Amino acid sequence: MSSSPAQSVDGAAPSETQFIRKLPENWLRTDTILAVVVAFISVLSLQALLLTDIYTASRLDFALTQAFSLVISFLLVFYRRFPIAIAAIYTLLIVALAFISLSLNISSESYSLLFVGFMTIYSVGAWVSNRRLAFWVRVGFVLAQWCGTIAVSVIVGFDETVDLTGDIPDLSTGDLTYVLGTTLVISLGYYASAWYFGGRAWNRAKERWKLETAHDKLAQANAKVADAAVQAERLHIARELHDVVAHHVTVMGVHASAARRLVEAQRDPAVVVEQLEHIEASSAQAVHELQTMVYTLRDQDGSAEPLPDLSQLPELVRQADSTTQTVTFEMSGQPVEVSAAVELTLYRVAQEALSNARKHAGDDVEVKVELDYGHTAITLSVTDNGTAYDPVLNGTGTGIQGMKERVNAVDGTLEYGPRTPYGWKVIVRVPCTKSTERVS
């Protein structure tokens, strides 16, 4: 059964900030089982009473007493769902029992009576949302119990026409006062414990609700921040695409129009070729800038730091150098200007190769990083003299597969595998021509 709210405050719809304690899904089954168990104990207790002299001396009507005890026990079925109503019914039944017993030989089994009373006070404190109402209901409940006890005791003690005890000797005024005072003190502790545990259950449920509410608000705030970040990134990408595409497409359109007019005018083919070369150059530059943007988005990790390039390669080597592996860096040739995509690719490949060497080559190994600027290509090699190992798919990128994708994107070649006689090598060659600006 689905959970439903405990007794409402005053019939008004609860606000979002008001705590309404929800009943558990299996509350009806659980409370029904509890009521049946208490009723069963009540029956056993009264059956045991039949075997004693107390039942004979009290001359109680067993059938009425048993029926009354069962009614009291089955109030537990709805003690959590309707705590105020159950408290009112319980109070009326106890008051009715107190005064009916003056004329009829009827009572109730004490253990179930006390337990149901305890659970009634507990449920009002644990489940009623209106805390002021819960307070006064419990106060009224306790006062009604005490007043009923005092009234019956006074009538029994001072009215000589009332005979409930049969052969049991009458109590003196002092004895009656002692019994009554002791009963009131014990009941005070009994009611106070029920009051305390009910209030504690309410407070714990409310604290849990506050934590859940705070967690939900935090999750909503995080979702809003994430959505805002996505929207901002979309706007950023849109602006970048507009700047790249619009400019170069406009240039290509102008030169294409000029080429068309030259062809129509049957001008010198060399002039037409010149216009077409402008179109080719603009398209290559547009592809190069789009490629750089794609790498920027691919490598973005949420930070505002610039993307690494070949100028940071010596620092990468220095960081890789350790007490267990010696890493050196050598650069040869005359550095040439290459695209950001090429620089990023060479840096990431070196980073991945060094990571693999650190994980798999072993200790006391020499790792050499070499960067050679040739006339037609840039060559990056990372070699070690350690143990040969299989390609792995973990590291700073996506392992060997990630290196292949990066190198292929800039029209380069990747060579990797065991060295002779031992060790491992990773060699990348990237052409220093416009081919580095093409997307595979």
From TrEMBL:
Keywords: ATP-binding, Kinase, Membrane, Nucleotide-binding, Phosphoprotein, Transferase, Transmembrane, Transmembrane helix, Two-component regulatory system. One of its GO terms (cellular component) is membrane. Residues 341-434 form the Histidine kinase/HSP90-like ATPase domain. The chain crosses the membrane at residues 32-50, 62-79, 84-104, 110-128, 135-158, 178-198. GO terms for molecular function: ATP binding; phosphorelay sensor kinase activity; protein dimerization activity. It holds the Pfam family HATPase_c. SMART domains: HATPase_c (SM00387). It catalyses: ATP + protein L-histidine = ADP + protein N-phospho-L-histidine. Its EC number is 2.7.13.3. SUPFAM superfamilies: ATPase domain of HSP90 chaperone/DNA topoisomerase II/histidine kinase. The keyword Nucleus does not apply. InterPro entries: HATPase_C_sf, HATPase_dom, Sensor_HK_TwoCompSys, Sig_transdc_His_kin_sub3_dim/P. PANTHER family: NITRATE/NITRITE SENSOR PROTEIN NARX-RELATED, NITRATE_NITRITE SENSOR PROTEIN NARQ. This is histidine kinase.
